[in-house]
Design goal:
Its main location: membrane. The two termini are 57 Å apart. With 391 residues, this protein is an alpha+beta fold. It is 50% helix and 13% strand. Helix 4 crosses helix 7, helix 5 packs antiparallel against helix 8 and helix 6 packs antiparallel against helix 7. The protein is flat.
């Protein structure tokens, strides 16, 4: 049996690794997978949200939609109020790539209009001899970017002596696609402004009722019951009708936003109240009180994060609800009015059955409404699940 000790007088050999010390080296998996044991709460939420593919796609759609409203004037082929009197109620034009078997780039065929003397309806047919190539990053209709900077640069423009109506035109010859893009700026932001009002009222009033209880809870609950007993549609109509017709479009826009926020806080306040009634009895709340924490700090720092998943779900349901509310009021003629353009205002063009039968493309503004509402719902499902990563 040989000894592993060095002979007498020989130096003791040892090795010191120059790598930095890693206190969590034993926690790393050998196969390179992510370790959840040492991950922060935000990392856990992000990893779980990323597994919800539909929520990720919905988030990308919403992100692109909200980014697009910053550059509407550049993205729209025409100005909001540009009229093409020779193309009233023109149908959508199909973008093509090949002409007579040869690649011609993105282009549209010109229109030929004839008048049906029996029905007095304008009939448009494609003129295959008129090839109108699309131009990109081009000069077109003049506009004021956000009402401040004058410009005429567009992403897509028709040919010099042609037109391009991707979704057709309305009764005044205005491009429906351009007006949908402009309307997105109002319809998408009205939900964000409304939810600020709704959440401020819901969290503050519901938080006071749930944390203090007693007389405060009794009064808040009776007020909520009274407001929830009123039918929502007649209440919307009544509040929207009291706004004078001579108010500026901006004031009407802010008024509709405030009304939608006032009508939607009761459900959130009741949910916040019920959650706080349960959480205020936890030991960590008592510990915070003994350490001298104030009431508002306990509510905001310790109690509200305890039901953050519910708040996220409420937000993703409230925003599309407000978009639908604005669309409904504007469609009925009691919400936003021209010259403000929103998806609800655009849908007023399709209120009669004759228009729907003859010009169905005027219903295209309902498509972004459906897409945005579905995207918010799917995103809410993913965020709600991700907010509780330990379940």
């Amino acid at each position: 049996m040989t000894s592993s000790l060095p002979p007498d007088g020989a130096p003791l050999l040892h090795y010191v690794s120059p790598a930095p010390f890693d206190p969590y080296a034993d926690d790393h998996a050998k196969d390179g997978k992510k370790v959840f044991k040492r991950a922060s709460q935000f990392q856990l939420m992000f990893w779980r949200f990323r597994r919800h593919r539909l929520a990720v796609v919905s988030g990308i759609v919403l992100l692109l939609a909200y980014i697009s409203i910053l550059f509407v004037e550049f993205l729209a082929p025409y100005n909001l109020h540009t009229r093409n009197m020779d193309n009233i109620y023109a149908p959508p034009q199909l973008v093509r790539l090949f002409h007579e078997g040869k690649f011609a780039g993105p282009f549209v065929y010109g229109h030929q209009m004839t008048l049906d003397m029996k029905t007095l309806r304008r009939v448009y047919t494609d003129d295959t001899s008129s090839v109108q190539p699309l131009r990109f990053f081009c000069r077109g209709d003049a506009y004021r970017f956000w009402g401040l900077v004058e410009s005429d640069l567009h992403l897509v423009c028709p040919s010099q002596k042609g037109n391009v109506f991707l979704l057709g035109t309305d009764r005044l010859g205005r491009d429906v696609f351009s007006r949908i893009l402009y309307g997105a700026r109002i319809s998408l932001t009205i939900g964000l402004l409304g939810i600020i009002t709704s959440f401020m009222l819901g969290i503050v009033i519901g938080g006071l009722a749930g944390y203090y209880g007693g007389v405060v809870d009794l009064v808040v609950q009776r007020v909520i019951e009274v407001l929830q007993s009123i039918p929502s549609i007649p209440l919307w109509l009544a509040l929207a009708a009291i706004m004078p017709a001579d108010w500026s479009p901006l004031v009407i826009y802010l008024g509709i936003t405030f009304i939608l926020g006032l009508l939607d806080w009761t459900g959130l306040a009741r949910a916040v109240r019920s959650k706080l009634l349960a959480l205020r009895e936890e030991d960590y709340v008592l510990a915070a009180q003994l350490m001298g924490a104030g009431h508002w700090r306990i509510i905001g720092r310790h109690l509200v994060p305890g039901f953050m998943s519910h708040l996220i779900a409420s937000a993703t349901l409230t925003i599309p609800g407000m978009i639908l509310g604005e669309t409904t009021l504007s469609f009925l003629g009691l919400g936003l009015r021209p010259p403000i353009t929103s998806w609800g205002v655009l849908l007023t063009e399709a209120r009669t059955i004759n228009v729907l039968a003859l010009y169905p493309w005027l219903l295209f503004p309902v498509v972004p409404v459906i897409v945005i509402i579905l995207a918010f719902n799917f995103l809410g499902d993913g965020l709600r699940d991700a907010a509780d990563p330990y379940q």
